[in-house]
Amino acid sequence: MISFLIYILKSSVCLLLFYALYKLLFSATTHFRFNRYCIIAGVTVCMLLPFISFDIVYHDDSAPSLPFYTLEEIVLPEQDTVGKANDSMTVGNRNDVITTENVMAVSAILYLSGAAVMLAIWLIGYIRMMKVIRGMRCFERDGAKWILLGDDIRPFSFGRYIVVPHSDYEKNSPVCIHEQVHVSCRHYLDDIFLQVILVFHWFNPALWQLRKELKIVHEFQADNGVLESGIDVTKYQLLLVEKAVGPRLYSMARGFSRNSLKKRIFMMSKKKNSKWVPLRLMLAVPVVAMVLYAFATPVTETGSLTHES
Question: What is the rounded distance in angstroms from the CA atom of residue 148 to the CA atom of residue 169?
């Protein structure tokens, strides 16, 4: 369990750095498809980087103390040290070990409790939403399952289901195109992926922010699909304002959100960024190198760990 907590700590650091990079380099750009895959790929890399381990060889004993290796030495003592603890440890050392063990035990309990609560909230919300959706009459068209309701409902999509007012569907309103783009791009798979990661990183504000960034990118991408279908920008923006006035039906559903409305309207009017913007991703290379260095194990030229010399 201690090794898993160290992994979570390492991946959390990676997520914090990735969020800072994304916010600085790509958040305000109009490369919506690239931004979407950048977030998904970036989170995936953050989950995998802690598994990459290599040794850094030094020629003397003056090697710097690498932070995560030092942490592992503190909370993961060598087996022979543990075996000799009863014979060689002083009272002070025993107390230090007990204190460390207690801290790690409490941390593990708090972490697992938070993960369990997050998983329960997600599953309960998903099950309740599916019960509501499956209790409605629907029909399939263009790879989506359509549910038509009264005009008092705000359009939204959930998985492959699209819920829209009957009047919007009959006149082929832009909101139908918007929700169809969400389904055809399979944005719901991104949501599931990040929700699974959130179960393990429920405490990490960077991942919550990345999830928020991904949701707004989804909206940008759907809006762009509407405009590419030939809809007038001004008319569509007015429609967005009109649809955002109604109450939100379900918190887990994807719909027209007031919170992101200003950003979406602004992004529709923004000039397209240069096609070379994705090359900014190269700036992440030194950051990845720095992270791998922080995760490395220092050894002397003779092959022994520097901290044991």
Answer: 8
Helices and strands counted in the chain (H then E): 13, 7
Give the residue from 108, 86, 107 showing the smallest Cα distance to 97: 86
What's the pLDDT score for residue 71?
59
Q: Are 272 and 30 in contact (CB under 8 A)?
A: yes
pLDDT digits (tens, 9 = 90+) for 23-39: 999 998 999 999 999 99
- How far, in Å, are 11, 57, 60, 170 from residue 261 at the CA level? 32, 53, 59, 25
Q: Which two tokens stand for residue 20?
A: 């800072």
For position 80, what pLDDT does the model report?
Answer: 43
133 pLDDT band, cuts 50/70/90, is: confident
Q: Let me know: does 264 contact 223? Beta carbons within 8 Å.
A: yes
Alpha helix ranges (H) inside 135-232: 166-170, 174-184, 187-200, 205-228
Condensed to tens digits (0 to 9), the pLDDT of residues 152-169 reads 777 889 999 999 989 889
The Cα 45–Cα 41 span in angstroms is 6
Would you put residue 149 in left (φ > 0), alpha (ψ -120 to 50) or beta? beta
